Amino acid sequence: MNQHPYHTYYSNLTPIEKKSSPRELFFKGDFSLLENGRRVSVVGSRKVSDLGVRRARKISKFLVENNITVVSGLAEGVDATAHKTAIELGGHTIAVIGTPLDKYFPAANKSLQDIIAKDHLLISQFPVGYPTTNKDFPIRNRTMALISDATIIIEANEKSGTRHQGWEALRLGRELFIMENVINENISWAKEMLNYGAQILTNDDYDDLILDIPYLTAKADYAF
């Protein structure tokens, strides 16, 4: 396990980014994935539908094909699908977890977590021995939004924890895309996010919208 004080390497923070950033990051794997290129979070339901799985794979595949690192939270459902797709297609992925690096949650993703820690990048803001609680997962979403140039919500329900990342992305000035099916299902928080700058992602325009994502967290913003 390695450790970086967050403010040691992340320069030019805006006041809201500084307020939202963790004091330190613990990591295993290739830290350069936090230095180079664009990163996009792909998030959504743990109990994902078959259609949601296909959408997560399609979006993650497109990101990989365009040399964009896939970021997610190593949960079941959409998260695991996004990570696995990136790995299977030879892309890069970052997992931001809500537990210390030596814990596996869910346990079913142990082998996936080990692969990411070895060949990609696994990060946490919680030190070994930290007593994990439910509140740590929304905190994890804040960090995931912070290190990503954009967030894409694939599938969600009214009570989904995904909403935390959506609001954080908007608050931090990051791009937020919500798949059309989420809006069509009348998820109240998703519709409200459209009033604050979120965009609807459809099968017809996802490629153009994703390719237009700006480099908000590129290497020039880091100082080692």
From TrEMBL:
Superkingdom to which the source organism belongs: Bacteria
Gene3D superfamilies for the chain: 3.40.50.450
Residue ranges occupied by any Smf/DprA SLOG domain in the UniProt entry: 9-204
Alphabetical list of InterPro entries matching this protein: DprA, DrpA_SLOG
GO biological process entries: DNA-mediated transformation
Family, per entry: Belongs to the DprA/Smf family.
Record's protein name: DNA processing protein
UniProt organism field: Chryseobacterium oleae
